[in-house]
Fold each of these.
Amino acid sequence: MTTVKLENIDACVFDAYGTLFDVNAAAREEQAALGSQWEEIANNWRTKQLQYTWLRSLQKKHADFWQVTGDALDFALSTSGIEDAELRDRLMNLYLKLSSYPEVKSMLESLKAAGKKTAILSNGTPKMLDAAVENAGIGHLLDGCYSIEDVGIYKPDPSVYQMAVDELGVAPSAISFQSSNAWDAYAAKAFGFNVVWCNRFGQAAERLPGTPDAEITNLSQLLPIVGAD
């Protein structure tokens, strides 16, 4: 964890998947059906999901995150030699109900108590994000929930980060952006945000433009950095 204090932060904007919501939760719920391969399937699902967003953006062949998530799951199951339509449907439905990380709700409560605006900025479709927010019971703690579907291209395109500026009416210099996805954190910093990388998984630093301002291991550590402790 890096000890930094960011000054004059008016809004905290969060990535959704892997940052607020546990992307492995769906596969974990189906451990009995997936067996010892469940973690490998979860990892392949997530990796391919992200790859497809980048590749579709580069190819200018957009499909929404629900389709991309399903395509990635099909790849992951096929890689592990699993063909089970009912299991696939259960996993996709579970993705709408991913559990939030334990500290998320109390962290958002503290930010709101400190007078900070809060929002989600995500690749997810509005339907997916609404379901995850409702399941976590955090809707009342958010000032906005923004989907890339409004610009039709995935992160890390700068137009995605601009959405938060436009929707919240807050300058990039007064926004702290949080993501557990290092590539997202670095891209948001290159865009002009203050950035706190929530490095939940102990990943090495990226070799990309835009080094984050601070690094934490869970979101409860964000509060003193943005002046909400």
Amino acid sequence: MRTVHGLHALEQLVGTELGTSGWVLITQEMVSGFSDVTGDHQWIHLDAERAARELPGGRPIVQGFLTLSLVVRFRNEILDLRGVTRTINYGLNRVRFISPVAVGERVRGTETLVAAERVAPDALRLTSACVVTAEGAEKPACVAEFVTLVYE
């Protein structure tokens, strides 16, 4: 985990790979809970028997938006921000779900700080590239450019 003290130190890291998180095991319970929250109850996420018969790999696949939502968890493992009062998820510039993640696989994220723009004397708008990979996969599961506001 990289420790960063304040906004000035963050600005100095533009263009730097900040790090890679630990692995997160995606369980059926996580997928089912996400389905309940979002209302996405497609069988491809929830029906293990049907997935065994009809899906490549024979396992239910994780919702892309569940995979994407893990970027917050990954950042919290990658970056220890000190001297800031709050961070706010501001948005996404680009997201692609490149390859599916199956239930039971482990994923992790790697974050690179692309830009840091002062939006106020005590605030930065960070743009980060996050690549989510499944263990042993040839292609990333998700690539996303996400934007966060950080305040001193």
